[in-house]
Amino acid sequence: MSETKPAPKTVADGNTVHGVVAEFSDVDSLLAACERVRDAGYTKADAFTPFPVHGIDKALGIKPTVLPWIALTAGAIGTCTALTMQIWMNGIDYQYIISGKPYISLPAFIPVSFELTILFASFGTFFGMWALNGLPRFSNPMFTSPRFDRATDDTFFLYLDAKDKRFNEEGAKALLGDLGGAYIEPVVEDDSPKKIPSFLLIAIAVVIAFSMIPALVVARMRVTKSSSPRFHIFPDMDFSPAKDAQQISTLFADGRAMRPDVPGTVSRGGLDWDVDFQTGIDMEKLAQVDAPRARQLVAMMQSDTEVVEADGEVAGEEEAVKEVVEETTEEVQADEPSTDEPSADEPASEEPAAEEPEAEMTEEAEAPAEEEPAAEETESTEETPAEEEPAAEEPAEEEMTAEETPAEEPAAEGPSEEEPVAEAKTEEPEAEASKPEAPTALAPASGPTVDTTPWLTDNPLAIDAAVLQRGQQQFNIYCSVCHGMNGRGNGLVNQRAQRILATTWTPPSNLHDATLYQDVYPDGKLFGTISNGVRKMPGYAAQIRAKDRWAIVSYVRALQASQNASLEEVPASQREAIEKKQSEVKAELEKAAAEEAAKAQKTAT
């Protein structure tokens, strides 16, 4: 039960007495007086000093305040409020995937929970202090004493409150006099006017009225229509010149919004591995199959490579790659039309090499020329040399073109070197006979699904536990959002796309599909897919280092192998648990099958 507080005592003149105050000249006498007052049983006493005095709260017997418990309770309420709000908003009411995290992700909820904890604890501390101190108070009876102004200068005061159950005005004065109080006087009610000045009320009303104007303007704008443009307080923020990567802009002369990468530049640490490691492609074989592409990839990986903008020619390449490219170009130059090959891929210095095959042409081109019908010879000047055909059967325009175009003169080398190709062409329809036959090394893919890129078949990293662990970590961060933690293509993004019936969504691949195994889908190709992206999947070369991309490849292979592993491949220490789990699953399946059979039999009867 709470104690009833006695009414303040009164003096002869009728003023209310709120307590008795005494002055002390030094700290030691004040502390001694505080201890004596505490021992006398007073619980409502206070001291006023011009500077903090260590130990004065213990001397007065002041008990610890409940303010920390108020702050703790308010902070806990803030934490629960934040968690409840986020769970309801993001996990129940409006499910939305953010950065691939689950709908209810406690680690992701920590920032908001922390902020509301601090906010509620701050408000609880602030207003709790007001309540415990009896604030707000516009006046204090202590201010009625003109001597109390020295409390902030050089004098110490000890105050006994009249609300204390042991308070007696005469007894309090006698006690303070015995303790060495120099000047003792009662603290009476402040009799100054309590009426608030009218000018202050008018000022408060004007401030409140002006503060309502912005709210009224906003409310009016929300419910009315206007033909004038909206007023922009910060126009530079509302009309920011920021552009997307592929957007048209006037910032640059070529109309692009962003600058393309400078040819030949690489990021720091990008040259720690060779070109094969960075691309997943066997560059030596690619140079034999697609020389321009090989040259471009090599140039991109060289930090000191110089690209001439006039003709796009790459300079400063490694000699080994350049020799391979030149040899391959000399072998297939005769079979490529000059109009299809840009000047950037074939330097002008290599054109004289086209004269070398003419010596072989006169020796080897006789047999194919005799076996082909005359109709086919007259249809294409690229398949049969002009000097072996009669002038009457060759149109003048085609003969002029063959003479004026140096790049087409050695065109007979292709069919002359590969006789089976010429024999096969005799059985094709006439519509296809006019089409020049590409050499086997540069033959285009037979369909859009055929990939002739010489991908690396094996992972260049030494596979160990650390690499697999790193690959699992990177896979869970970047890949599991769509492909799922087990790689079966049912990640959170795909689940939401199916839930909202997204018409433009392309489901991610099931990594356990047989077409993605290593014997069909090489490691280098999987590395290239991670780097460059495919369909809805973006490329991750900018986010994931090459070494980590190879680690992801190794982890994907481990995932695939785990689906077809036999019990003998499991460590002996774990076989017993797996066998137990297998027996439990088998029993559950048998039980479910028996229930279905019983239900079917019951339905049939």
TrEMBL record:
Membrane spanning residue stretches: 66-88, 108-132, 199-219
Cytochrome c domain: residues covered: 466-560
Superkingdom field: Bacteria
Keyword Chloroplast included in the entry's annotation: no
Gene Ontology molecular function: electron transfer activity; heme binding; metal ion binding
Residue numbers spanned by region Disordered: 310-454
Annotated protein name in UniProt: Mono/diheme cytochrome c family protein
Biased composition (Basic and acidic residues): 422-435
Organism: Aporhodopirellula rubra
Keywords: Heme, Iron, Membrane, Metal-binding, Transmembrane, Transmembrane helix
Biased composition annotated in UniProt, kind: Acidic residues: 326-421
